[in-house]
Amino acid sequence: MVRRSVYPFTAIVGQERMKLALSLNAINPSIGGVLIRGERGTAKSTAVRALAALLPEIYVVADCPFSCDPDRPDLLCDGCRARLERGEELPVTRRKIRIVDLPVSATEDRVVGTLDIEKAIKQGERHFEPGILAAANRGILYVDEVNLLDDHVVDLLLDSAAMGVNTVEREGISFQHPARFILVGTMNPEEGELRPQLLDRFALSVEVRGITTPRERMAILERHIAFDADPDAFRSAWQASEQKLSDEIEAARRIVDRVSYTSRDLFTIANLTASLHVEGHRADQVILKTARAHAALEGRTCISERDIVIAAELALPHRLKRGPFHEAQASLNDLAERVRQLQAQYEETDQPQVTLQSDFAGKKKATL
Fold it and tell me: Deepest of 120, 185, 309, 327, by most Cβ within 10 A of its Cβ?
């Protein structure tokens, strides 16, 4: 059952780019998460919690602390794998995706979990006490005020999000479990910034601002009044649009690994990031993954010029050279024209336009 306090995702007025970034990460968590930057009262936390309520239910191993996927034996934790090897049948249940909050005061042990070294030495048993990453596996890990979190802890989160695995090693003893989650960080830039190295590790970034048009502000008021008066009735009124988006996300998950792209698309992405002087290569990979997820959301199995533009708008703002915000924004304003020019430039090279898929195409997707 959905808690009465959860506001419907599709009822949020405006903030379309934030909602899109969250939806694309739900389709393909390996995109690498989203950082939502904005002033107070702009529906940041509301959107994250609403997404968790919206997403389709998942099958999990009922008594597993890591919520292992019973249909993915290659991604099971050490405990579930050992049970299968002993011939046990794993109990299965179906439930909603969890949202796990990470407090700003969280320590490394609280995040990754702890190994009982004394028990390992004296009794020869490997005992692991799960942490926040274990609870977040196949769910949403939400970090409010991520800019106030210890940099070392942020590094741990981003490493696990990128690799999909949490490994804990103490005194020569190690334990590993799956850690695949949608990472969402929110922050108010007025309270301090993240280091550029950490900013780059977030795949997508969205700037949200308070809505200024009277008509939309009035709609926000009306909807919140209705929700506060009768949450159940309000959710019922929005159930059709919630179910529609939930179905679209589920359908997109099934086809995202089959979404193809061409050598012209790769040429376009690589030249786009190079022309904007984006450091490293993470942005190129993020743009491609995000473009494929956007195509899948629209029910297509090949990416378009528009998919690349939308993906770049989400992947590049926090990676541009830091200067006055308007300068960074000016570099993004002509993205669509840049992409058109680059695709035309590729055509002029007379190179064959080869259709490609990722190395994982055709394999079963590691979904939440």
Answer: 185
